[in-house]
Amino acid sequence: MSETTSERDGREVYDPHAVQARWLPVWDRLDLNRAGIRDGAEKKYVLDMFPYPSGDLHMGHAEAFGIGDVVARYWMRRGYDVLHPMGWDSFGLPAENAAIKRGEHPATWTYANIDVQADSFRRYGISFDWSTRLHTSDPGYYRWTQWLFLRFMERGLAYRKKSAVNWCPNDQTVLANEQVVGGKCERCGAEVTKRELTQWYFRITEYADRLLDDMKDLEGSWPERVLLMQKNWIGRSTGAHVDFAVGDRKVTVFTTRPDTLYGATFFVVAADAPLAEELCAPEQRAAFEKYRDEVRKLSDIDRQATDRPKTGVSLGVVAINPLNGEELPVFAADYVLADYGTGAIMAVPAHDQRDLDFARAFDLPVRVVVETGGEDPAVTGVATAGDGVLVNSGPLDGLRKTEAIERTVEILQERGTGEGAINYRLRDWLLSRQRFWGAPIPVVHCPVDGEVAVPDDQLPVRLPSDMKGADLQPKGQSPLASNDAWVNTACPKCGGPAKRDTDTMDTFVDSSWYFLRYCSPSYDKGPFDEDAVRQWMPVAQYVGGVEHAILHLLYSRFFTKVLHDMGMVDFTEPFSALLNQGQVINQGKAMSKSLGNGVDLGSQLASYGVDAIRISIVFAGPPEDDIDWADVSPSGSVKWLARVARVAADVGALPAADARDDAVDRAVARAVDDVTRLTESHRLNVSIARLMELTNALRKGIDGGAPASASLRDGVTALATMLSCYAPYTAEEIWSRLGHDVEGGDSVHASRWPTADPALLVEDTVTCVVQVSGKVRDRLEVSPSIGEDSLRELALGSDAVVRALNGAAVRTVIVRAPKLVNVVPV
RNA sequence: GGGGCCGUAGCCCAAUGGCAGAGGCGCACGGUUUAGGUCCGUGACAGUGUGAGUUCGACUCUCACCGGCCCCA
Question: Which among A257, A662, A682, A719 would be 20 to 30 A from A313, CA to CA?
């Protein structure tokens, strides 16, 4: 009796755990997933978004990496030299919080979790090239993160400025715009407030146009919704800058509707913008400050809620409309945001809903300047934003919207009071964090020389190893600030006493270039070996969750473009194709502790085995769709894999012979042809269905009369190789049952993808459907090569058709040889 | 409010504009069996959310509505 089966009632039973125990050590020894060892083979880089080391793997990892593994293994089987690397995004807040709780250094928790995950990935049978393993928290990695920061600084792409920033009161750190979701901290869910702070930024806005325009290269190979989300995030809008005079000051606003300038009846400044304070008349100061303090308590989400009544306060000054010299009262209000555009707007209540709401609340005039055919906004309370003909607008009267916009810009330019302009929703990337567990910003602040970059040969600026537990407690500034020994240093320029920058970088900086490091993970002359990168990059297939649609993917694209401009890489987009897998949910909802609907991966694997879980995930539906675990039946997968094992065992036991069976050969060829196409196009659920069909066909071949062993052996061989991408253990098991010496290196994971004989894909006869008026009336068995004319004759001669026509004359006959004829009576 | 995606048997899902069903779960039945379990096999169940339109022909394309999800406000 084989060690992988047990006898029960005289029948073999498939034991997934025994199969795993048998092959895992053999694979460890054979080390089959190394990249760069197939001479002359075309290269393909398959990348999974690297994980954060939070505890052990969960269902989400099982899905994402399971899908990525199918893709990687498929290309390996197809003979490509595949790079399928692995590492950890190991800086970040949870490690720090755990360290505070446990009185440890964050590295302790981090690296312990990484080891647990690494072993789980290994047992989960993912085809990683483990020699690529990297951790962004290793000094050997963050040295180069710091190095890249300094290059950005040299190019003016990293800079420091003071402004109102997003502040998470819970995590005690600033956040990038991208990390504020619906007014809340993306990580902890706390309501984000604003703080005035001096922080480091990456000048991503300088790349806004290229990030937008280069998306055309990604169309078709990235999910459309991701491209759309990035497009919306960058938010390019064209319009004009218009200069208003307020007292002796010039205040510029951005508007997408310069054509409505004559409709401006008041002027609004964001209450929390420094500009509001500067413009405020002395007699209004008390009222303004009271209002501003109220506004500062509000979150952005409250401020932008559309159903909220509009509030504001007069600043006691007027702004002069540059076009008609009209005096517009200036208000401070909270519905204008300080960091969008210039923080000030011209308000055109007739044609902008928010302005109209404000005008009605404050009893301000509403002047229609575009006749859209809609009802009077002053009466209906509904602003008319559409196209129309300009009225009440002096020289613009009679023009349509587009012409009026052009003309207004011309007039403004002639007078020197404005110009055409493009505005972006995208803000510069705020990268400083007041936290410990991240790459220190490699800058020294010197009383003499100011901001001084740490010289390359002094990198990395290492994190101190002696800080733990309470030392890391958030205090509103980086924990590093309290470590005098670390902070105090010599200025690299003058040698005098100086202090290190105590902030660390956003962990998204670490993950914006890791895919490059994978090409040469231990390279020590730069962040990556440019030759290695030239060989592997760009990534042929990237696999990961849609939650990174904006953050990580936009940042990585930005980094790649900067590196391209630095001459370090010869491409401008890092990821040629992107696959967003769905989420694993349970009972219609995301798994969560509070709902108590979590599904533990470990216990699923213990109950059903690795392969059954992998199959269940892939078979549940299209990879992009969410999987509701309540709809999944892992025991069904076990049943199928056991059936596969039995089929293979039965075929392996057949006496060697040359007998062939045409039906089996055709079924195998069809399966190979379909599964190849389906796997390649990521239709993985349908691939599994075809493999199940093939299993059924092989079963039939075994049970029906005299089994044709040659055909069946070929079928099981093809099945094993195709299955190796999906269920690596079971595939190896049946491969071995066919007599392959796996221990000696003849593993299914070194086998080549089967090819289908085209002759076997052509059927002898096909069923031709004959319709009358679109209704099926007859079926004809015809040759696949039948001509249109003879098929028409055949169909018209059919008794069933004659009966259906019932003497009616024929108007047309649609012939789609060889599968369909549609007879249309008059 | 704007933009996008999705509604197919009891359930999950298939179907280059051409026979609504590939595969699985569940169910029923038959065979195997000491067994209602395993295994082998057979079968039933929907006319594609609703209503129009285009077409010889619509699950597929267009429009509206209903329901669900996502992004931006």
Answer: A257
